[in-house]
Amino acid sequence: MQIHFTKLSGAGNDFIVIDNRNQSVHLSTAQINAMCTRRTGIGADGLILIEPSQRFDFSMNYYNADGLPGSMCGNGGRCAVYFAHSTGVPSADQGRYSFEANGNRYEAEITGHETVRLHMLDPEDFRNAVAIEGFSCHYVNTGSPHVVIYIDNRKLEDLDVYGFGKAIRLRSDVFPEGTNVNFLEITAPDSISLRTFERGVEDETLACGTGAVAAALMSFRLGKVSSSTVKVNVRSGDTLEVAFSEDLNSVTLTGPAKIIYRGIAEVQNDGL
């Protein structure tokens, strides 16, 4: 089976995006995992199917690299919108899209060349910090579950994000459904640097949109930054901008979304 796809990068998060508005593409967990596997497949942090919606401009069905359906992906949502824009998916409001993901409505607009602003859901479930693996772990859900950890006496660039991130992610006694794990340092009153271990990818990624939102909101809530517009510097070298109201609602995530290449994948019954 041949499948046309587009590879996109959202500040370093990379995605396989497929136009499935005719609903002809049906992929198994093994096939998605094979396509996302690096070196032997296309390679990506996740796969996105752009599908029809009865209420909005399109529906985004997101799968993690492990092939399983994922919760909301902020950079994936921005890439989905840029793909829709570049492919000519019609929208009710030119340059602005509404779409559904996991039963929720999202809006986004193209704000410049290869730049997309995504309007996020309001955060939920802020929790008091708990001690895990020697870290003080804060928690919030920004469409996906996130632990936020401040690195005060260590260098972020030298931190074993994979080792510590995996250990915390697997603490099912604290996080029964798992969690993403963010390590950050404050670099200015309106700026942070961030590294993220992502659930479903099971590794550190070069960026995480919902993680950037979680880190920015938590930092403002705890008084670690003073601005309600926070620049989040991610592992790829790109910068995401998170803006919100002082009551931590009306959240937007803005950053680059780029088409890397288009191609055709030969997908077998058991993968690539």
TrEMBL record:
<dbReference type="InterPro" id="IPR001653">
    <property type="entry name" value="DAP_epimerase_DapF"/>
</dbReference>
<feature type="site" description="Could be important to modulate the pK values of the two catalytic cysteine residues">
    <location>
        <position position="198"/>
    </location>
</feature>
<keyword id="KW-0457">Lysine biosynthesis</keyword>
<dbReference type="GO" id="GO:0005829">
    <property type="term" value="C:cytosol"/>
</dbReference>
<dbReference type="Pfam" id="PF01678">
    <property type="entry name" value="DAP_epimerase"/>
</dbReference>
<comment type="pathway">
    <text>Amino-acid biosynthesis; L-lysine biosynthesis via DAP pathway; DL-2,6-diaminopimelate from LL-2,6-diaminopimelate: step 1/1.</text>
</comment>
<keyword id="KW-0413">Isomerase</keyword>
<dbReference type="GO" id="GO:0008837">
    <property type="term" value="F:diaminopimelate epimerase activity"/>
</dbReference>
<keyword id="KW-0963">Cytoplasm</keyword>
<feature type="binding site">
    <location>
        <position position="180"/>
    </location>
    <ligand>
        <name>substrate</name>
    </ligand>
</feature>
<comment type="subunit">
    <text>Homodimer.</text>
</comment>
<comment type="function">
    <text>Catalyzes the stereoinversion of LL-2,6-diaminopimelate (L,L-DAP) to meso-diaminopimelate (meso-DAP), a precursor of L-lysine and an essential component of the bacterial peptidoglycan.</text>
</comment>
<feature type="active site" description="Proton acceptor">
    <location>
        <position position="208"/>
    </location>
</feature>
<feature type="binding site">
    <location>
        <position position="13"/>
    </location>
    <ligand>
        <name>substrate</name>
    </ligand>
</feature>
<feature type="binding site">
    <location>
        <begin position="198"/>
        <end position="199"/>
    </location>
    <ligand>
        <name>substrate</name>
    </ligand>
</feature>
<feature type="active site" description="Proton donor">
    <location>
        <position position="73"/>
    </location>
</feature>
<feature type="binding site">
    <location>
        <begin position="209"/>
        <end position="210"/>
    </location>
    <ligand>
        <name>substrate</name>
    </ligand>
</feature>
<feature type="binding site">
    <location>
        <position position="64"/>
    </location>
    <ligand>
        <name>substrate</name>
    </ligand>
</feature>
<feature type="binding site">
    <location>
        <begin position="74"/>
        <end position="75"/>
    </location>
    <ligand>
        <name>substrate</name>
    </ligand>
</feature>
<protein>
    <recommendedName>
        <fullName>Diaminopimelate epimerase</fullName>
        <ecNumber>5.1.1.7</ecNumber>
    </recommendedName>
</protein>
<dbReference type="GO" id="GO:0009089">
    <property type="term" value="P:lysine biosynthetic process via diaminopimelate"/>
</dbReference>
<comment type="similarity">
    <text>Belongs to the diaminopimelate epimerase family.</text>
</comment>
<keyword id="KW-0028">Amino-acid biosynthesis</keyword>
<feature type="site" description="Could be important to modulate the pK values of the two catalytic cysteine residues">
    <location>
        <position position="146"/>
    </location>
</feature>
